[in-house]
Design a protein that fits this description.
By secondary structure, the protein is an alpha/beta fold. The chain has a single domain, classed as TIM Barrel, CATH 3.20.20. The protein is built from ten helices and ten strands. It has an eight-stranded parallel beta barrel, surrounded by five helices. A two-stranded antiparallel sheet has the order 3-4. A hairpin with a 5-residue loop joins strand 3 and strand 4. Helix 1 packs parallel to helix 9 and helix 2 crosses helix 3.
Length: 275
Amino acid sequence: MTTPFIIMSAPNGARRQKSDHPSLPLTPHELAECAEEIMAAGASILHLHVRDNQGAHSLDVDRYRAAITAIRDVVGDDLIIQATSEAVGQYSRLEQIDMVKQLKPEAVSLALRELVPSEDELSEFADFIDWMRRENIFPQYILYDEADYRRFHSYLERGIFQNDHPFTLCVLGRYQANSSAQDAKSEALKLCTTEAKFPWAVCGFGLHEIEAIHHAAHHGGHIRVGFENNIWKDKKHLLSNHSEMITQCKKAALKENRTIATAHDVRKTLDHKKG
């Protein structure tokens, strides 16, 4: 039995502006409209960033609440809203944790290297994971390279996540221009996913997003697409909208005889309380 294909959408991210793509959603109203579009297209998770009045990355809890309320008013519970805790060089790990504790989102993404940069923070991180479990918050752990993956796997074997099947996102590439060294790191991390015994998703940057889609669909993983990582249809043309790449995800899943996961499927199959 094949696993339903989870399509996550990251429609804005922390860095891009409307000057990059006019359909980049920044306000609560724009995010709500975008949520309706991506859900209709087949996404089950919206990876949410919010911005300040100048359009810069923010972890402001009130801004998150305003955006989540606007989105819920449009899509109800038919879409999982995953808040980001990304630092973007602005927030400390304690500020990131504090945001999650104040907001108590349904789901949250956590960069392993940001939240637990060394063994010194591991005990505190384990306590945070225990708190999320009690609050029924669904975490996804972001891994940027093979070293992150190996450390994550070590923590998994030690029971840090209190879950035999924690959900991960492996980031293939970077915002900066690709280099041969970065390509090699991405290939190493991609190879790691083929041996993973826990649910994983990948995302790719620029036109590498297409490669990431087919890799995930073929190898039993899941995918995150969206303007956060890619705005290009090809080398000359921008994507028309947020649903265009989601359609590519659905085609890749169909080729591999995989159904498209709904939010209900995700909540059922990736229940983080199942150990």
